[in-house]
Amino acid sequence: MYLTSFAKSFTILCEHVHKRKRSNLPKIIENIREQLLIEAKKQVLQQGYSKTTMRSVAKGCSVGVGTLYNYFDSKEMLVATFVLEDWNDYLKMMGNLYFKDAKTYLQGIYMLLCDFEEKYKSLFSDKEAAKSIGTVFYSRHRQLRKQIAGFVGNICKGDNSLFTAEFIAENLLCWSMEKIDFEMIYLLLDKIIKEEN
User: Fold this and answer.
1) pLDDT for 175-189, tens place per residue?
2) What is the pTM of this model?
């Protein structure tokens, strides 16, 4: 009888301690990094860069601001991360384009660039964002051009093929920001491609 009473008391004590320990543990959130990126992207695209803060993103994910800083050092890093991850998805789509002919291939790349620019138009035109992350994007411009040139290089065969590929990539990149009609751009690009080959 004494052992039974002791066992019951011990069991009740263990349950109490176990419940108490569980309530003091930090909550475990699945895929927290991805959730933070999704929330940041949603806020930036819906309310703008300047109204999005580290605190608002953390609140949107129901985590502490310190948790957010464990993953991202700053708002600029957070934004650059989700933009870069999307850009990498667009690069994969460019890599999967079917090469039927130069015009169709370049138009596919151009349309993807236009789509990416449209998706982030509010971010790219935000003055505060331009001040904060403009230098990051500016320093990455050469890298973007080289990535696009890697796809365009399939078309260029002459002595200056590397330069020509980058020249075409630069034009596609810049004119996609202006939404210039592809047919107009291709009139000149076609001449350059024919001259190069």
Assistant:
1) 998 999 999 999 999
2) 0.79
